[in-house]
Amino acid sequence: MKKKKLAWLIIPALLLSALLYNCSNSDNAGNFSDAASKVYVAPGTHDEFYAFMSGGFSGQVSVYGLPSGRLFRVISVFSQNPETGYGYSEESKPMLATSYGNIPWDDAHHPEFSQTDGVPDGRWLFINGNNTPRIARIDLKSFETTEIIEIPNSAGNHGSPFVTENSEYVVASTRFSVPVPQKDVSISSYKENFKGTISFIKVDPNSGKMNLGFQIIVPGFDYDLAHAGKGVSHGWAFFSCYNSEQANSLLEINASQNDKDFVAAVNWKAAEKYLAQGKGKTVSTEYYRNHFDEEKHLALSEKNTQVTVLDPKDCPGLIYYLPTPKSPHGVNIDPSGEYIVAGGKLSTVLPVHSFSKMLKAIENKDFLGDVDGIPILKYESVIAGEVKDPGLGPLHTEFDNNGNAYTSAFLSSEIVKWKVGSWEIIDRVPTYYSIGHLMIPGGDSRKPWGKYVVALNKITKDRYLPTGPELTQSAQLFDISGDKMKLLLDFPTIGEPHYAQAIPAEILEKNSKRIYEIEKNKNPYAAKSENEARVERKGNVVRVYLTTTRSHFKPDNIEGIKIGDKVFFHVTNLEQDWDIPHGFAIKGATNSELLVMPGQTKTLAWNPLKEGIYPFYCTDFCSALHQEMQGYVRVSASGSSTKLLFN
Amino acid sequence: MKKRSRIMVLVATLLLIGLYFFPIWNIDLTAPQYPEGIGLRIWINQITGEKEHDLKNINGLNHYIGMKKIEPESIPELKIMPYIAAGFILFGFITFLLKNRNILAIWIILLIVGLGIGLYDFYMWGYDYGHNLNPNAPIKVPGMTYQPPLLGGKQLLNIHAESLPGTGGLIAVTSITLAIISFYIDRKKKRI
Question: A335: distance to nearest CA of chain B, Å?
């Protein structure tokens, strides 16, 4: 009897809990169906923002739409791309030239828009190559990489390429200190021989052309990340650094001993004055600047052999160190320019330095000491406040336009929202999993468009269908228009996305190029009409001036090529119509195919090794008769008398 | 002729000057591959694309069906029409100055005949382009011709063609209408 009674009690309890469970479940589903409508961009309509994500170890930049999370394009930057011929075509090869030879890949971390008055202006996107120190500039009309400059005296170009308020400079700092200039020394002589450098790359305000303005030689720490000042702090740039211990082995332990490392505050306006006074020393080095000429459709490399270096010892007031707990990673400046937030990976608080307090401390000489002549300011004299319990492993901070800051915490895998000024935490949401950078459109500028925050996660695990040991990378979109952050969408990304940038679509959309004007094509090997299509031989160099138009090549039969010849296919796409690229592929090509945009010329080198007939064809389904767009090359023995023929 | 009537003749004459500044006829094409549209503008002395490269692109597309290239420099009408229009304008001024209703009548008749011949010629031009096709064309659809409509819309394979008078054409029609009204008003006044 007793058992039965109990059963009567248990059944309603079970029913009730099932009901409650159902309720909470439908509540969840309701939340996400609401989210679905917020990220749904109807077929044929456009996204609100362009997002540019670093491709990480892919070396490229990916272009997404927000809020849909749709991938539009991968822009080739530091890595060869056989799909388009980038880095393989004769025209684009020089883009990857460095003082270490042609480097066909890199590790791209931080995209950054050019700015005017501290606001992204949609002209260019800069991104760093971390491994072989470089900075690339992407033109946001063509969405193509148009310039790459190598940074000498650097190793691990991580703290880069952050722009000053009017893109006067993009900055770079060396993560790995090395002997400057390079020399063969014992690694254990680190403290004596290893130096860091901070570089300011001047950007031409009209053409965007980059020029290494000057470098500052600094103590051999690991300079990690940076951001330039803006508003009140315009004229300064801030660089976080760890390993103030100057350890040279097992850094995970040996560089984690000091309670505080530093944020280096660099007064670049003062640097300009010192340069004008002739305090800069000209130092011999070697670095490349590669520039893609959009009218010639051709990249040119120039080798530079000198750089101007400033030594802080000769330039008082050029740099100050702000003590910052503990192994700081990101350094971010709020939209006003007053607050400098540094994410200490191992710190339990998030310190926020005050720019105005820093100026006062400098005036009062509130120094704790110095490192190699660089004054260390007192922590208490520069700190504006500390965000308590900012999550474990705080890394990066972005800002909205309502006075809120958003900090990513890697270890506790969350975004923490806090109030600038009161330093109180307002909200926190989990991320899946282990967020690195985060990004709000314009969130590191003077004018954030604070509608969304994107979490760029390091670990994906079970978020998508599994694809073997190697999984996709993952980004997450949150709505931040209300008080509480709301997860809207997970979407996969290429490479490992580090930092990202986003800008309202209307700023870029109207300027996006549709074709290259064939009339303006100044490539020396262009055939600008079918009348100019031809084949020319000079010694063993054969140049094929090939044109493409729907749906044929001209010429499409070529005879008289011989083994040992160096053949160049100069392919000009005569189309002047939107979205009509043509491809070019030839059997046995050891390099790549070409994808040629309307009005463009690209060149593929080809060295035939065996006699026979080699078909070539269009790889981009261009038209109804795309399959007919083909041709043949006849290859004869090296001594043969086959005449050069083409139609 | 009454003053009001004369002023109308003057306005009709001046309007015709617009023929030199606006396209007379528009042919607009859309297709699944051209959601943004692609089009021709027929001017008094030239044929251009709606957008910079449209003419080149239309010629490129037309080679699939074996249509002749539209080469404005080899179309004689485009050389003659500016003079004919100039003649009409001159005649209009003369009508305005001579104040003679009979001359106005002749002007109107000439204008209408001119318009009629122009439309017929345009039709024949379209007929020639649409029917006189290269027998080696890649795309041959039995019984299919590609004459653009004289006025209105027509589906030609994947392309929808829409043919309508342009601003210049509307100007011509307005001008003729004004001339007819002025003629009519003049007669009415005389009767009273």
Answer: 40
Q: How many CA atoms lie within 13 Å of A580's alpha carbon, on the beta-carbon side?
A: 23
- Report pLDDT digits (tens) over A514-537: 999 999 999 999 999 999 999 999
Q: How far from the centroid of its chain's Cα atoms is residue A632's Cα?
A: 41
Residue A496 identity:
E
Judge residue A279's burial from the number of C-beta atoms within 10 Å of its C-beta, 0-12 exposed, 13-18 middle, 19 or more buried.
middle
Which residues 526-555 of A have a C-beta within 8 angstroms of B? 549-551
Q: How confident is the model at residue A21 (pLDDT cuts 50, 70, 90)?
A: very low
What's the token pair of residue B91? 């005649």
ipTM: 0.87
Query: What is the count of residue pairs from A and B with beta carbons less than 8 Å apart?
Result: 22
Provide the β-strand partners of residue A558: A633, A646
Find the CB nearest A624 among B36, B53, B64: B64
pLDDT at position A28: 43
pLDDT in tens, B67-97: 999 999 999 999 999 999 999 999 999 999 9
A584-614 per-position pLDDT tens digit: 999 999 999 999 999 999 999 999 999 999 9
Nearest to A174 by CA among A89, A242, A119, A269: A242
Interface residue A509 vs chain B (CB under 8 A): no
Mean pLDDT of A479-486: 96
What is the reported pLDDT for B1? Answer: 78
Three-state DSSP at A403 gives coil
CA dist., res. B103 & res. B182, Å (int): 13
- Nearest CB to A576; choose among B57, B61, B64: B57
Residue type at A440 in one-letter notation: I
Chain A environment of B64 (Cβ under 8 Å): 550, 623-625
> The tokens of A6 are what?
């109990």
Task: Write the single-letter amino acid at A123.
Answer: R
Cβ distance A577 to B36 less than 8 Å, yes or no, reads no
**pLDDT for the residue A11:** 56
Closest-CA distance, B61 to chain A, in angstroms, reads 8
**How high is the pLDDT of residue A14?**
53
Using DSSP's 3-state secondary structure scheme, residue B80 falls into: helix
- A383: enclosing H helix or E strand: strand A383-388
- Among candidates A636, A464, A443, A462, which has minimal Cα distance to A558? A636
Instruction: Give the mean pLDDT of A36-60.
Output: 97
Band (A5; pLDDT cuts 50, 70, 90): low
Of A576, A624, A625, the CB nearest to B56: A576
Under 8 Å between Cβ of A69 and A489 = yes
CB proximity list for B118: less than 8 A, separation 6 or greater:
B81
